[in-house]
Design brief:
- By secondary structure, the protein is of the alpha/beta class.
- The protein has helices spanning 10-21, 33-42, 59-68, 84-92, 105-119, 152-163, 171-178, 189-201; strands at 2-6, 26-30, 47-51, 74-79, 97-100, 126-129, 132-135, 140-143, 146-148, 207-210, 214-217.
- The strands form 3 sheets. A 5-stranded parallel β-sheet has the order 2-1-3-4-5, sandwiched between helices.
- The longest helix is centred in the middle third of the chain and has 15 residues, at 105-119.
- It is elongated.
Length: 219
């Protein structure tokens, strides 16, 4: 899942981003609304975690721009104000969900994951392909009953490949969906992650390389 965290409290923004990255999400961070609009115009995010009271461009304007773009991005709006009138105002702008500060990180994660499922075609919480089981809620992977320990990045790559349901996924698409904006487009990080993932998943290989096109997981 690709997430943008927009929050002017830098410590909060960075702490949330680091926690989400540990859960295999690709996370970008910005601290004002103007920067958020620039990022949204470049990257294909699944969810934007958006503070309402932002410097530069106000969070309401950012939310309105996201909705007007007509894409599949879901907006989770954050605010320090907890009264009903404020929540209704945020939702009336088109936000998909609303969370009042201070919040529990576990609740934030649950809401982001729920919005992420709505941003994409519905799939079961446990993906099963070629003997590989990927349990999204529990963040666990097994093959033919054998538990497999993966890094957050390896888990993210495997999720993208399994969500494709046998279709070819290019290296560029993997880089976009499983890495954040700081990833070097000329890096061999995708090739290395796929190679390590192949080794951990064991024999026979389940990830196929399609020369000149990308990778896929067979049936």
């Amino acid at each position: 899942m690709r997430v943008l965290v927009v929050e002017d409290e830098r410590l909060l923004a960075d702490t949330v981003a680091e926690g989400l990255r540990r859960l295999a999400m690709a996370v970008d961070v910005c601290y004002d609304g103007t920067a958020a609009l620039e990022r949204i115009g470049v990257h294909g995010y699944d969810v934007v975690v958006l503070d309402r009271d932002l410097p530069g461009t106000h969070g309401d304007q950012v939310c309105a721009a996201v909705i007007a773009s007509g894409g599949e991005i879901k907006v989770l709006m954050l605010t320090a104000a907890g009264d009903v009138t404020d929540r209704v105002a945020g939702l009336s702008l088109g936000a998909d969900d609303y969370l009042t500060k201070p919040f529990a990180f576990a609740e934030l994660v649950a809401r982001i994951q729920a919005l992420g499922r709505r941003a994409r075609p519905a799939l079961p919480p446990v993906l099963n392909r070629a003997g590989v089981l990927l349990d999204l809620p529990r963040h666990q992977v097994s093959r033919d009953g054998r538990h497999i320990s993966l890094s957050p990045k390896e888990f993210a790559v495997l999720e993208v490949l399994m969500r494709a349901e046998g279709a070819i996924v290019s290296a560029e698409e993997l880089l976009e969906k499983a890495w954040d904006e700081h990833a070097d487009p000329f890096t061999n990080a995708v090739r290395v992650a796929v190679m390590t993932l192949r080794r951990k998943l064991g024999e026979p290989p389940v990830i196929e390389t399609v020369p000149g096109a990308g990778y896929r997981i067979g049936s």
